[in-house]
Amino acid sequence: MNLSPLKTVARKELMDGLRDRRSLYTVLGTTLFGVVVIAFMLHQIAGQRRAADEIRLPIIGREHAPVLVNWLQQQSGVEVVAGPTDAEAAIRERKEDFVLVIDKDFAADFGQSKSAPVQVFSDSTRRSAQSKLARLTLLLNRFSAETAALRLIVRGVSPEVVAPLKVQEVDIANSQQRAAVILNVLLMLVATSIMTAGLQIATDSTAGERERHSLEPLLLNPVPRWQMVAGKWLASSVVALLAMILTLKVFSIVLSRLALEQAGIRFQLGTPEILWLIAAMGPLALIAPAAQAYLSCFARSFKEAQSYTVVLVLPVVFLGVISTFYPLTNRPWILAIPFLGQYSLAAEVLAGRTPPSPLLIAVGLEALALTGVLLGLASRLFSAETIISES
C-alpha cells in the first residue's frame, strides 16, 4: 500500500499549522497560563497549611480567663495578643483573621464547673484564614476535653466513663494520594491543551480550506479520500501530542520549584510519571483531532467549525470538575467510556499507582477503534459532492 500521499498531506498540514504564529502563541499561552494557575493554587494551599502552624490570637477579656490564656500561650506557635475594642469591626475591616472573646462571667462559671462561655468571631468567606481558625477550634476543644477530664478525676470518676467510644481515624492514603485529589485539575489542563492544540489544524485543514476554496483543487488529485483525511488528522494529532508533553514538562519544572513538602504535600512528577501520563492520556490526542475533523466537515467556515468543536471542550471541563468531588478510579465500567477511561488511568498515575499494562492497551485500542470510525465517517463526507458545494 502506497502511503506517500498520506505522508505528504500530513507534512503539508503540519508545516502550514506551524507557520501560523498566532495559533502557536495561543497554544503556548494557554498551556503556560494553566500551569501558572495550578502552581499558584498549590502555593496558596501550602502557604495556608504552613500559616496554621503559627497563629496570632487576639483575645478580648483575657483577664477573665487566666487559666485558658496561660494554656494557650504554652501551645506551640500561638501568639496571644490584646484584642481590639470591637471584634466584629476588626474582622470586617480585615485587621484580624479572628478574635476570641471571653465573657465576663467566665471565671465564675469555670470555678463552679459550669460551661464557661467564649465566642470566636470570624468571617467564613475569608478562605485564607480557615486553616488558622481550624487550629484555634482544635485547641479550644483540647482545653475543654482536658479540663473535663480533670474535673471528673477530682470527683473520683474515670474520664473514660463519659467516653464510651475512643475513635481513632486511620488514613491509609499517603501524602501523594492526598495531593492527587488536589491535582486532578492537572488532568483537565492536559486534556484542554490537547483539544485546543489540535483544534487549529483540524478545523483549518477542513472547514478553513473549504472556506478559502482550496479544498476543491486538493480533491482533484488522484488520492484516496481516507489517506487525505488521515493525513490531516495525523498532523493535528502530532501537534496535540506535543502540546500534552509540553504541558506535563512545564508543570514538572514548576512543581519541582515549589516547597510543598513543608506543608505535608508530597508529589513527584518525574520522567517515569510523565511517561505513564502520556500513555494514559495519549489516546485523547488521537480521538479529539478525529472528532474535530469530522465535525468540521459540516461547517461552511472556519469560525463555524470552531463553534462546533468547542462543544468538545465542555465534557473535558465537566470531567475535571466532577473528578474533584467524585473519584473516577477503581470502577471498571469507566474504562469503557472515552475520555473517562483516560481520566481514570491518569488519576491512578497521579496517586502514585502504576496502571496495569493490559488496561492501558485496552483503552488505547478502544481509542484507535473510535478514531478509525470517526475518520471513516469523515472520509465518506470527503467523497460526497456536498463537501465542496455551497448548499
**Structural class by SSE content:** mainly alpha
Q: How many DSSP H or I helices?
A: 17
User: Cα-atom Rg, whole angstroms?
Assistant: 30 Å
Helix content: 55-70%
Main sheet? 4 strands, mixed
Q: What does this protein structure show overall?
A:
It is a single chain. By secondary structure, this protein is mainly α. It folds into 2 domains: about 260 residues, no CATH class; about 120 residues, abc type-2 transporter like fold (3-Layer(aba) Sandwich), CATH 3.40.1710. A 4-stranded mixed β-sheet has the order 2-1-3-4. β1, α3 and β2 form a beta-alpha-beta unit. The longest helix has about 30 residues. The mean pLDDT is about 80.
Quick synopsis:
By secondary structure, the chain is mainly alpha-helical.
Q: Which helices and strands, and how do they pair?
A:
Elements: H1 4-19, H2 21-51, E1 55-60, H3 66-73, E2 78-82, H4 87-92, E3 98-102, H5 106-111, E4 118-122, H6 130-154, H7 175-182, H8 184-211, H9 215-219, H10 225-256, H11 271-281, H12 284-296, H13 302-309, H14 313-325, H15 332-335, H16 340-350, H17 357-383
Parallel strand pairs: 1-2, 1-3
Antiparallel strand pairs: 3-4
Helix pairs in contact: 1-10, 2-8, 2-10, 8-10, 8-12, 8-13, 8-14, 10-11, 10-12, 10-17, 11-16, 12-13, 12-17
Descriptors for this entry?
mainly alpha; 4-stranded mixed sheet; 391 residues; 2 domains
